[in-house]
Amino acid sequence: MVPLRCGVSSDGGGGMGSGHLVVVLPGIGGSVLARGTDWDAEVVWDAGKRSVARLAFRSDRLGVDERLTPIGVTRSMKFMGFTVVPGYERLLSGLSMLGTLDPGHPGRPVPDADIVVVPYDFRFGIMAAAERLDAVVRARLEGLSPAERAGRVVVVAHSLGGLVARAWMGLVGQAGEERWRWCRALVSLGTPHRGAPKALDWVVNGAPLGLPGPTRLVREWPSVAELLPRYPAVRDVRVGDPTAEGAALYPYEMPVLGLGQRAREAYELHEQILEAWESMPRSGPEMVACIGWPHPTPDAAYWDGAKLTVVKERPSWLEARGWESDVGDGTVPGISAVPIEQDQDVDGPRRLPDRHIRLASADVVLELLRKYLEVEPPSKYRDPRRPRHAPSLGLDVEEVHAAGKAIPVSVIARETDPALGGQPVWARLTAADGSAVRVRLDPEGGVFRGVLPGRPPGLFGVRVDARAVPGVGDLTCADTVAVVDEGLAGG
């Protein structure tokens, strides 16, 4: 690695003028992976302009038998075979207005950058990624004294990237040079600090639509095991009655072949991270959890001895006192997006109306960075009148669908009139070429439901609009879904 100095000198000159280094970490699937680092390196994961209709995906190329080089982050949305991956172009565009950006290609460094993207091989787990992050940051801060490094780094991390950042700050470095000492703040965007039942669904039941290649990957990647719930999210109902008094199980306690040891190791790693963060002084890095809150999200599961059934309705046995309204972002439950050491701080997280993919480019990132980089006065970013939960639409739509099959959509209004004052609610499905279909959703007992027509393989934007809601104004929510030709998804 070429030694690089942070583009901001210790006396505050150059770059953003604040003396900070901003580090950006993507989520699972968000790093471009290649063989080699030269200009002609073979890109293994990203797909570029290849047709989504052919999935731009071969699962045999992403097995863990080969190490690949991370050379950047995805610049448009992708389908990885079991989940949709965000594009980070909007986030990077906004960040580039604050300073000089290094997009993260190890063979093409930007020496004077004060905003550095750190892609990583997302297959191999949190600690491997944390070590790569450490190498990049150490090179950027090379030559600075411990006092000059202190509080210098601000990390912005989406999804799995937040777990990588927490491990780096808590578990890397020796006494006196623990990495948390270098950090001013960590902003996590939809990070599953307590895990996600959706990942458990992938591992136990397989990838959506039973795609064999992606199913093999989610069961062998260490990173997916580290996304499993770290709370007793599974009710044991092997007696056959979902309402029976069964034990609530951690994933590592489930009698599923191949799950126990990997899940236990992941749980123990998260316990080490938690212990490290709980031992940090209050003057340590500020932890800002940005969570999506209004969307139905897989939250718990039932195990009958043969099948795992994941549910989006939070059951009474799964306590979330004080967090009842924080449903989730469609992928990560609301309370799971909050670190455990903050579980008593109900007013602490930044609650956003976005779904998981959209959180990657949430406007709140620039707002918070202007605060940490001191480029705007406090009055610009502090609003004591901001409500905990603002009126929002909660969107429920699966992210993967078979080609030609109808796409059910449902929406619920939160923190406002459930009937939306009688205003019509419309859902729109838009293809990459701009073509769109639009359907009106019908109210059924406080939920607006409808069915979008089946489509050929590709990625499609789903947007729901309720206009001129009395006392609120316009409400909108959006996400991206993948439509898959099952015959092309192969292993």
CATH architecture of the largest domain: 3-Layer(aba) Sandwich
**Would you count the extended β strands for me?**
26
General form: globular
Low-confidence stretches: 1-17, 48-56
| Rg over C-alpha atoms, rounded to the nearest angstrom | 22 Å
The DSSP helix count reads 9
CATH topology of the largest domain: Rossmann fold
Account of the 3D structure:
This protein is of the alpha/beta class and 491 residues long. The chain folds into 2 domains: 1-390, Alpha/Beta hydrolase fold, catalytic domain (Rossmann fold); 392-483, Immunoglobulin-like, CATH 2.60.40.1930. 18% of the residues lie in helices and 26% in strands. The protein contains 9 helices and 26 strands. It has helices at 89-95, 126-140, 146-149, 160-171, 197-205, 212-220, 222-225, 260-278, 364-372; strands at 21-25, 31-35, 42-45, 69-73, 78-79, 84-85, 101-102, 115-117, 153-158, 183-189, 234-236, 248-249, 286-292, 294-295, 300-303, 308-311, 328-329, 350-352, 392-396, 400-402, 407-414, 425-430, 436-444, 447-452, 458-469, 473-484. A hairpin with a 5-residue loop joins strand 22 (425-430) and strand 23.
